[in-house]
Amino acid sequence: DYRVIDKRIGSNKDFSELVVKLHEAGIKVVIDGVFNHVGRGFFAFKDVCEKKWDSVYKDWFNISFDGNSPYNDGFWYEGWEGYYNLVKLNLNNPDVVNYLIESVRGWVDEFDIDGIRLDVAYCLNRDFMKRLMMSACTVQLIMSVIRDCTQALIQ
Q1: Given a cut of 70, is residue 14 above it in pLDDT?
Q2: Longest dimension (CA), the chain
Q3: Other CB atoms closer than 10 Å to residue 69's CB: what's the count?
Q4: Dist. CA 26–CA 152, nearest whole Å
């Protein structure tokens, strides 16, 4: 879930408090942005597993209902690099792109993060990268990096 901190390591509140403490100590916070694939437990994929053709999320993934997955889901889907526990997102779907960009906006607004490391950036399509780079929240992150670099050069 792109909008909830993994409960194994804490809560959104815990992370927010941690970021405040790190910022007070002068430490920037960069989080991992995994925009190419999700786990099988992702809410949209679970919905597809349950509802198949009737799922509103079926186009969020590269799916064929003419095949089957190694997990016997009753449909085939593209797994990242052949790993079917990591379900590839369809970054050509505007709903997926909007969901991801809104999630990044949430990270900026709720947690005041300073940057994002793009996981498997080589797998992200150019149009998605353009949309991500042009979103207001990403521009804020980029400006923060530019400001920090400029300050470091001046000092």
Answers
A1: yes
A2: 62
A3: 18
A4: 14
